[in-house]
Amino acid sequence: MTQQRITVIRGDGIGPDIVDAAIQILDKAGCDFAYDYADAGLVALEKHGELLPQETLDLIASNKVTLKGPLTTPVGEGFTSINVSLRKKFQLYANVRPVLSFKGTKARYEDIDIITIRENTEGMYSGLGQVVSADGNEAEAMSRITREGAERIVTFAYELAVREGRKKITAVHKANILKSTSGLFLKVAREVAQRYPQIESTEMIVDNTCMQLVMNPHQFDVIVTTNLFGDIISDLCAGLVGGLGMAPGANIGKDCAIFEAVHGSAPDIAGKNLANPTSVILASIQMLDYLGHPDKAEKIRRAIKEVIESGDRTTRDLGGTHGTTDFTQAVLERL
């Protein structure tokens, strides 16, 4: 059997520390992966003169599976989002952001288990029609939704729900105002829902969704929505379970996938052994599920749960006093 090769982008800021922690845990769990390390972000800009070197793109394309730490896109003209560029380059149309409650995080809610599925390549993040007038007084951007893109992401959501035994999907939109773009998305979502009578299908306007997530989050199971709304909603959901340090993300296409920590590179604490590595460890669990290793995924998930629940060597954002290496060691010992 051929050894699975994984492209690893350690990233910027706290990225190297938390990604290295995830690699240790994968190895300890018995994953026989071969790792090919690649540069992107500020590290790549300094070493290679570009944010996304061609050799990195080639490795991603060759290995098909990537584990990625947070990347920094320089602020200013001439730089586009590295994450958006990767999603468009490899047609990673589905962004999957699960949030799950862990006792011990001191989050406001318990028993949260929500998956946000966000269309990843269209909408306001497509980069189309961005224009600023010569006098700097007007700016425009275009949102483009296609029937193909909407059907693809909604079908992905229903297939995931069937596969994972989920009961309910909420299509989130703003079709009452954005009658063209959001209207098309909602129309397609209703059509796709008809094919899955075993799943309860609901729909909700995005502003009400945000309010309902704060007031009664347990009513949600799987949320499917467009790019901009999904970006905002998935971060809101992370706040229900303890913050972005507890939220992983998967970017999935037809034959390629990138799994990542969804928080920023936190340069203010880089190299200080303070970061919580849970987000990228949970992303590696998503990667294991994607690769067909649910037993190893569950083993790691259980170890993280035990560490956080016990408060043994947890990081500051979880109410503890320890750092990345201590937290990682606590997980390794349980594995």
TrEMBL record:
Name under which the protein is recorded: Isocitrate dehydrogenase
Residue ranges of domain Isopropylmalate dehydrogenase-like in the record: 5-331
Gene Ontology molecular function: any one: isocitrate dehydrogenase (NAD+) activity
A Pfam family annotated for this UniProt entry: Iso_dh
NCBIfam families xrefs: PRK08997.1 (NF006529)
Entry similarity comment: Belongs to the isocitrate and isopropylmalate dehydrogenases family.
InterPro entries recorded: IsoCit/isopropylmalate_DH_CS, IsoPropMal-DH-like_dom
Keyword line: Oxidoreductase
EC number: 1.1.1.41
Organism: Bowmanella dokdonensis
Enzyme class of the recorded protein, top EC level: oxidoreductase
Keyword match Phosphoprotein: no
PANTHER family per UniProt: DECARBOXYLATING DEHYDROGENASES-ISOCITRATE, ISOPROPYLMALATE, TARTRATE, ISOCITRATE DEHYDROGENASE [NAD] SUBUNIT ALPHA, MITOCHONDRIAL
Alphabetical GO biological process terms: isocitrate metabolic process; tricarboxylic acid cycle
